[in-house]
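Deliverable D2.4 — example input (structure tokens):
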């Protein structure tokens, strides 16, 4: 199943870092991509994912996934695929762990609220903000801002979902500083990170949705891909309780999707005559992905999850209240910048100051955003569940 060895990213062939590391600080036995991964894991932004929403608001329920657990699960799937294909596991893992760093509190819908609140300062985009975090806002080093990740890590984070053609201000700023070839496809490691994200949230959101009671198993079984696996589990384990069967369902579907990606990626690479990393970037299309048949089933599963889970009436009150929290916090800080912590009261143009407010709110965890709203604006009315 391994691909031609030349298609993998190799740390010794890295294009390097924006800030060359010429000091004598001990580095240990780690190569460039291992250091990228470790810098991400040790970052403040990564730790904050512990209290950021995946689907359910982070304070609710010990067993629901949050951004941190989701990112770890994506990394596990990504490493499995990378190892089987002979790609660089460390770079893949770094990209998987960092892919959600830029999310604001309360998940995707609240990103829309923050984008609207900052419309006169260029808006907000979580992927571009993730790049801003690792190049500007994280500042653990004495001589420069950012984590000083390798070019390959920055490229993968910027365009793991494919070429970036409509640049937001934050992405343009990062690209101006360190040109990332945003108009072409990234490494296979980055493409694997993106498909691992799809596999993880498709299946783990099924798990959380069923656990919460929002998803109905009978409705889920209307999807052929789910029904097929559900039936196969019963044949292997007659009489298995539904709770165990549901957990087996998630495992089996992940296994099927991973196997499909391995076969389809190998097929596409061979078909395209790709033998080197440069060929991957020049292929002009996605090489890591699902087969046509499974892609259609996966899209149907996504549509189901959006309709029955993410946009469900049960979560509507949470969505509306979370949007109100983000909108009100942005309005409060815009009205009085003295409300920001002293270290965040930066100068510059009006746009610079507004973007600083966006940076501050985007970095908040769910719990911190709730506490600041109660302190600065007023009570929060989230339901007892979800």
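Example output (designed residues):
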């Amino acid at each position: 199943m391994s691909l031609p060895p030349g298609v993998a990213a190799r740390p010794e062939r890295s294009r390097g870092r924006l800030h060359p590391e010429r000091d004598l600080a001990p580095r240990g036995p780690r190569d460039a991509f291992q250091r990228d991964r470790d810098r991400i894991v040790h970052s403040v932004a990564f730790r904050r994912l512990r209290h950021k929403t995946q689907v359910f608001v982070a304070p609710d329920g010990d067993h629901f996934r949050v951004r941190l657990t989701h990112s770890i699960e994506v990394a596990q799937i990504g490493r499995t695929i990378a190892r089987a294909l002979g790609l660089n596991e460390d770079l893949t893992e770094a990209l998987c762990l960092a892919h959600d760093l830029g999310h604001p509190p309360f998940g995707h819908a609240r990103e829309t609220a923050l984008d609207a609140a900052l419309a006169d300062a260029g808006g907000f985009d979580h992927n571009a903000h993730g790049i801003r975090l690792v190049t500007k806002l994280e500042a653990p080093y004495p001589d420069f801002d950012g984590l000083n990740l390798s070019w390959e890590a920055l490229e993968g984070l910027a365009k793991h979902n494919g070429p970036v053609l409509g640049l937001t201000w934050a992405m343009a700023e990062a690209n101006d500083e360190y040109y990332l070839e945003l108009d072409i496809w990234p490494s296979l490691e980055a493409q694997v990170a993106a498909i691992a994200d799809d596999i993880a949230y498709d299946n783990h959101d099924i798990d959380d949705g069923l656990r919460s009671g929002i998803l109905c198993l009978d409705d889920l079984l209307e999807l052929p891909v789910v029904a097929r696996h559900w039936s196969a589990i019963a044949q292997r384990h007659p009489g298995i309780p539904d709770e165990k069967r549901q957990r087996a369902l998630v495992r089996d579907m992940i296994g099927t999707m991973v196997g499909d990606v391995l076969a389809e990626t190998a097929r596409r690479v061979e078909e395209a005559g790709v033998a080197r990393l440069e060929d991957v970037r020049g292929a002009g299309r996605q090489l890591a992905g699902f087969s046509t048949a499974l892609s259609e089933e996966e899209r149907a599963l996504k549509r189901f999850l959006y309709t029955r889970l993410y946009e469900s009436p049960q979560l509507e009150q949470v969505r509306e209240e979370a949007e109100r929290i983000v909108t009100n916090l942005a309005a409060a800080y815009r009205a009085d910048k003295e409300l920001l912590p002293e270290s965040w009261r930066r100068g510059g143009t009006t746009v610079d100051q507004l973007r600083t407010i966006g940076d501050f709110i985007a970095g908040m965890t769910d719990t911190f955003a709730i506490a600041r709203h109660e302190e600065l604006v007023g009570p929060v009315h989230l339901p007892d569940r979800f």
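Residues 195 and 377 are 40 Å apart (CA to CA).
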